[in-house]
Amino acid sequence: MKFSIESVKALQSKVLANILTSPPVSSEVRIAGIIACLLAEPDVELVCWGLGGAGADLYDFARAIDCEHPCLQSLLNGALIRPTLVSKRFAQYISLAKFAKEQEWNEILSDIHKMAVKHIDKNLRGITKPFSQYVRLLSSPENREEIRKLKEVKLFDVGFLNKKANFNWEGISSDFALYCRNSMGYQEEIERAKKKALRYKELSCTAMYKEIITSINEFKNEFENDYYGFHQVTVSKVACILAKMHNVNCSQSPFRLTWQEEGRTYAYSPRIYPFHKFKTYMNFFMPSSIVKIVEHLDAFPPANRKPIFDHFLVVVPSIDTHTIEKNMENIQTHEICPALLGEADGKCYFICHII
Predict the structure, then answer these.
(1) Which parts of the chain register pLDDT below 70?
(2) Are strands 311-316 and 271-274 parallel, antiparallel or unpaired?
(3) Residue 130, pLDDT score
(4) Cα–Cα distances in Å, from 33 out to 7, 97, 127, 224?
(5) Which of 59, 76, 144, 219 is paired with 132 by a 20 to 30 Å CA distance?
(6) 163 CB contacts (<8 Å, ≥6 apart)?
(7) CB neighbours (10 Å) of residue 301?
(8) CA distances in angstroms from 115 to 55, 94, 127, 208, listed in the order given
């Protein structure tokens, strides 16, 4: 099921140019709060006595990250680098542990972290080794690469979409034009939807009107909360857009996506490759433009020339019987066209096609 290579190439040239010509932005990051507190204490044992195991992970995290990374300002709403009541308590618990140790108050020393844990919320406790959700913040490129290599190739099951009550196949785009960096095309879609909603309202179809307004609000939230100009998109939506783009057949009740090949019908089953695996499998067929884009995003000018994504993922349209080797062959012969995504804080963003 071939896609339109001409339209993809035209879109790709605009996307790559938009990313590569982004002007540099320099922003000062002031470190205070929890990170400053942990950096000020050289003795990890005292941190463990004062804050427990979660404190030890935060201690290592504080020493592993790049303190000039602008994303620290928004991470957990800036809770790690701004003075707060929690950071003040962290410092007090560490000081208390230090004093108890000096006085050899061993019984008290072993109980301090039990009080402290009440003030370490689940978000802070979620910062644990190997810090896979915060890879972009790590100062060492070697550490970033090591953690990224922990991801494996996965099959994506589109069957779960059948259980989603609000899933609308007809509303899925057939290309990624709306999701390209800095794209404002979503505003036109919203205006069209508003006009449609008003028609239903005039016809007293209140339920339809409310449903469209709800969809508009969800759509606006999805596109207006961009990340360095990149638009958020779920892996399931990427899989469906690729399906439409490659003319995959869709049947309803139950929802099923199928691919015709050599007169036979197969279940559509896209694969998700971590970028390092995909690059290895593609070998010398790997487009140099894509390698350049990934390297550029790992030193992105608008972000103090820091990495902006924790991981890079490649979604490849496929069927359940295709091997990895068959995926690579189909890409090289332009039978299929994958999508490259960036992941930050567990959310995915469309970057470009791989062609």
Answers:
(1) 1-2, 162-167
(2) antiparallel
(3) 85
(4) 50, 19, 16, 30
(5) 219
(6) none
(7) 15
(8) 13, 12, 19, 53
Classify each residue of 249-266 as buried b or exposed e, where b means 16 or more C-beta atoms within 10 Å of its C-beta. Answer: eeeeeebbbbbeeeeeeb
Structure-token match 């089953």, residue found: 269
The CA-based diameter of the chain, rounded to the nearest angstrom, is: 81
pLDDT at 163: 64
C-alpha pair distances (Å), 23 with each of 29, 163, 174, 279: 19, 44, 31, 28
Residue given tokens 């896979």 in the structure block: 132
The residue written with tokens 């406790």 in the block is 125
CA gap 300, 99 in Å, rounded? 45
Q: What is the DSSP letter of 283?
A: G
Note the pLDDT of residue 91: 92
Which residue in the block uniquely carries the two structure tokens 């593609």?
Answer: 282
Position 198 scores a pLDDT of: 86
Distance CA 154, CA 315 (A): 10
What is the torsional sign of CA 259, 265, 269, 270? Answer: negative
CB contact at 8 A, 158 and 259: no
| pLDDT tens digits along 183-203 | 887 777 778 878 888 888 888
Q: Give the sign of the dihedral formed by CA 235, CA 239, CA 245, CA 251.
A: negative
What single-letter DSSP state applies at residue 165?
T
